[in-house]
Fold this sequence. Notes:
Elements: E1 3-12, H1 16-32, E2 37-42, H2 54-57, E3 64-73, H3 76-88, H4 93-96, E4 109-114
Antiparallel strand pairs: 1-3, 1-4, 2-3
Amino acid sequence: MAYVDGFVVPVPRNKLDAYEKMSRACGAIWKELGALEFRECVGDDVKPGKLTSFPQSVLLEEGEVVVFSWIIYESRAQRDEINDKIMQDPRMKEYMDPKNCPFDAKRMFFGGFQMMVDM
Length: 119
C-alpha cells in the first residue's frame, strides 16, 4: 500500500503567493523524481480548539493561515529514495535556505504514514 508524508505549516497570509510559487516548483521536482501525488491545501474552515486544533498545533499567529499538505509515494522505500534525491537536487537549494522560506519552519510539523485505507 502507498506511503504518505504529511505536513502542517503556518504561512503568513501576505506570503501565500510566495508559498504557492515555492510549492509548485518543489512539487514539480517531487513528481519528476517519482512521487505519485503532491497536494497543498490552505485552511478555509479551521477553527481554534479548546484542547487541540490545527491552529494550536503550529502556534498560529495573527495574520497567518494553516496549510495542510501531503505527498503520496508507492512505498516507504520509494519515499526514502526520493527524499534522498530531493536533498541532493540543486534546484531545491534555494528553498532549503531559511532566509528564502515564506513560513516559520520551526513551527511546521510533519511525519511519514503507512496508508491504512485507500478508497
